[in-house]
Amino acid sequence: MNASHDLIAVFGGIFGLLAVFSLIGAGLKYRVARGQPHGVIDNLNARIKAWWAMIALIGAAIWIGPWGVIALFAFISFQCLREFISLTHTRLGDHRALLWSFFVFLPAQYWLIATNWYGLFSILIPVYAFLLLPISSSLGADTTRFLERAAKVQWGLMICVYCLSHVPALLTLDIAGYAGRNMLLIVFLVLTVQSSDVFQYVWGKLIGKRKVSPAISPSKTVEGLVGGVLTSTAVGAALWWITPFTPLEAGLIALVINVMGFFGGFVLSAIKRDRGVKDWGAMIEGHGGMLDRVDSISFSAPIFFHIVRYWWVA
Amino acid sequence: MFVDRLLAAALCGFARALTGVRALWLGSEPDARPRVYFANHRSHGDFVLIWASLPPPLRRRTRPVAGADYWLTTPLRRFLINRVFRGVCIDRRPGRSGPNPVAQMGEALAAGESLILFPEGTRNMGDGLLPFKSGLHHLAKAHPEAELIPVWIENLGRVMPKGSLIPVPLLCTLSFGPPLAPVEGESREAFLSRARSALLDLAPPAD
């Protein structure tokens, strides 16, 4: 089977599932909430509706091709960086460093994917941004909490731009016997990690009792974590046929990226609690901000990229 | 008239796109009665953002109070403040001879319109809030029927700080607080410090 058949099969399956979930959501609204406002059910329905839009957007980007996917993730990075820097305190002296981050490093990182320049892609932000941005900030001649400010800008770039850019960078990997199918690696990564978020939410709502860490996240439970990670690991293993992996390998890799994804959400929750907010933004109804939706991908994408690059690229 | 409105709508649209502005109504709701929105001041874009986050019908009836010494100096600024923003231009200089600023602002309130006022009197380049000028107090005494709504503008000072040409596209949040309750026989100092802390209460915790 060729790549577009597989893509159509996978997306057809997702839309079918979404249709089922939408029916369940409407049923719950009708039977349990009797059409009245109901916090949990309304939030569930808002989330399902947003999923339709998000899946459609990813599908459209994949249909356009590599440029579509690169542009989509560049936009996601832009929105995440916006949300991240908006919630962290920077000072007037950082203005130039922020301009560099938004208008030079972010586009450059994605341009390097488009031109397939892996060497610079892998060090642009960890080395060059790391050294140049504090130089720019120091020229602002404001020493108040200087190290803290420099660290925050760098951290934002790493999480929102560098890590996320590893998703479209999967398109540049040259895997023997897998030519022309790299788009499916992105589908595997995004689907597995996002399904882990969904199943953690579902298991948590159904049987969640013990909180993982009430100080960091009031909604994450041990039952939700274990159930979610295991279920989506099974999802990953079941998707082996769209990857270059065997079913066992697909399951192991899914386990690793799901655990990383969980901790992505966990770490970013710790930052949100410290800033006294629940969500990074209000862009996606029912989900919060863009960064709330992709925090798990940010933490799992580089690891997934390296696993594939180390063991599958000749 | 049509061009003025179109320009106003375009500027609001641009401000919304650049800042993704979100209005949080914490203790008050959008309402057509005469109000004085008083806010912290970091950027010339401040009143555009307050404007942009009000529902369109209220927008035309809400007028920024602006310093004549800045806004009336060039033809472009004059056009913007008089025609597009319909500002109330007041003379901030101490030894002024022209019309009384409080009377000018009062006329707008008496006509059923609302005002946007920056009681710090100037753009604040540091953190927190400067001490308030007394205009808010005079206005409150002369127009007890007008509601005083504190509005904290978060982040706009970072989007476009003084002297920078390119804005950073950070997200801005406007917090509209509850109306300031009137207190009988309150001194000017007590009133101004109460108004100032009502505004500071809306600010996110400093780190």
Q: In words, what does this structure look like?
A:
The complex is a heterodimer of chains A (314) and B (207). By secondary structure, chain A is mainly α. Chain A has three domains: 1-60; 65-172; 173-314, no CATH class. Chain A is 73% helix and 3% strand. Chain A has ten helices and two strands, in the order H-H-H-H-H-H-H-E-E-H-H-H. In chain A, strands 1-2 form a two-stranded antiparallel sheet. In chain A, strand 1 and strand 2 form a beta hairpin. In chain A, helix 2 (39-64) crosses helix 3 and helix 4 packs antiparallel against helix 5. The longest helix of chain A has 29 residues, at 3-31. Chain A is globular and about 60 Å long. The two termini of chain A are 23 Å apart. The model of chain A has no long low-confidence stretch (mean pLDDT 93). Chain B has 207 residues and is α/β, with parallel strands linked by helices. Chain B has a single domain, classed as Glycerol-3-phosphate (1)-acyltransferase (3-Layer(aba) Sandwich), CATH 3.40.1130.10. Chain B has nine helices and seven strands. In chain B, helix 1 (2-19) packs across helix 2 (46-52) and helix 6 crosses helix 7 (135-142). Chain B is globular and about 45 Å long. Chain B starts with a helix and ends in a 7-residue tail after the last helix. The mean pLDDT of chain B is 89. Classes of the chains: A mainly alpha (314), B alpha/beta (207). At the A-B interface, helix 3 and helix 4 of A face loops of B.
